[in-house]
Amino acid sequence: MAVARLAILSGLAIVCAMMTATSQQRPPLLGEPIEPIPTATNIDPIKVQLGERLFRDARLSHDDKFACSSCHRLDRGGDDGQARSVGRDGGPLDFNTPTVFNSALSFRLNWRGNFHTLEEQAEAVLLDPRLMGTSWPELLAKLRADQVYGKEFASAYRQPPARPLVLDALAAFERSLVTPGAPFDRFLRGESDAIGAEEKSGYELFKSHGCAACHQGVNVGGNLFQRFGIFRDPSVSGRPNGADLGRFTLTGKEEDRSVFRVPSLRNVAETAPYFHDGRAATLEQAVEVMAKLQLGRVLPQEDIRLIVRFLHALTGEYRPVAGQSAGSP
């Protein structure tokens, strides 16, 4: 009898454990507008390590004062936390610095989407007088005079430093800057308790209010262009400047006036202030502004609160590749 009772209790324990596991794990959600970030990457670690060294090296700028990491802080959401960064000339730049995290997942780069590849964008930053302000002869002379760089380029490419190799290494490092493992990604993959009831409610509001029409896909944005200010004039002063004109300054087409690349919402809770001009200091303000300008709605404060709770669940995990901690500048 005792043996039978023990067997029954053991069986019940197993059933309970199976029921608990079932309640926490379910099949992945299908047909949702947002997709989880792929966890597998296929990037040469030697090139990534070289690219990180270049990314953090102020010698890539003309005056040896600015590195890529000066504006793209890997401990600050991949940007610098300023409304607009200060250029080499001491004046504010035209745009709020976009995050470098998950940039490889976007179809275009920068606010106006004027770059198609990471290599193209990196070269523009290096040569821009207001950014890095260098030239290829100057930059390559510095790298070739450094014995460590000589060894690292030989290891990665079997060649000394050269323009296409510098750009390839920088791009390799930037492609490694993905942040998988966000609570919402785990929820999409079947981990039902990865987010709470409020985050789930916020996601439903995010969809029902229409936010997911532009912010969707693996990068929760970054895959299309959209006009900023569909229902209201978006300019703060009523006198739009060149930056407010968006892609119009590139194409001269009226249909591109105030059109921007839709930004990714990955890690958005870590990338304040918001918008191309940094006008919104908090995520709550950003959601409120977006509802008015893009949806023509004034959202209840409770809806805003819940949507913000959902947006916090989009914060993923960054694991550097060269022995650096996640908090390294």
Task: Characterize the structure shown.
Helix content is 39%, strand content 2%. It starts with a helix and ends in a 17-residue tail after the last helix. With 329 residues, it is an all-alpha fold. The protein has a two-stranded antiparallel sheet. It is globular and about 60 Å long. The protein has helices at 2-24, 45-55, 68-71, 118-127, 136-144, 147-157, 163-175, 183-188, 197-208, 248-251, 283-295, 301-312, and strands at 225-227, 259-261. The chain folds into two domains: 45-175, Orthogonal Bundle (Cytochrome Bc1 Complex, Chain D, domain 2); 183-312, Cytochrome Bc1 Complex, Chain D, domain 2 (Orthogonal Bundle), CATH 1.10.760. Helix 2 (45-55) crosses helix 7, helix 9 crosses helix 12 and helix 11 (283-295) packs across helix 12. The chain has twelve helices and two strands; from the N terminus they run αααααααααβαβαα.
Order of helices and strands: HHHHHHHHHEHEHH
**The CATH fourth-level homologous superfamily of the largest domain:** Cytochrome c-like domain
User: How does CATH name the architecture of the largest domain?
Assistant: Orthogonal Bundle
For the largest beta-sheet, the strand count, sense and barrel status come to: 2 strands, antiparallel
Give the strand order, joined by hyphens, for the main sheet. Answer: 1-2
> Percent range for helical residues?
25-40%
Structural class: mainly alpha
What's the oligomerization state?
A: single chain
- Integer count of domains: 2
Rg from C-alpha positions? 23 Å
Tell me, rounded to a whole number, the average pLDDT.
Answer: 89
Q: Which fold name fills CATH's third level, the topology of the largest domain?
A: Cytochrome Bc1 Complex, Chain D, domain 2
Beta strand count: 2
Count of helical stretches: 12
Q: How much β-strand is present in the residues?
A: under 5%
Molecular shape: globular
Low-confidence stretches are: 1-23, 320-329
Note the gap between the termini.
66 Å
CATH class of the largest domain: Mainly Alpha
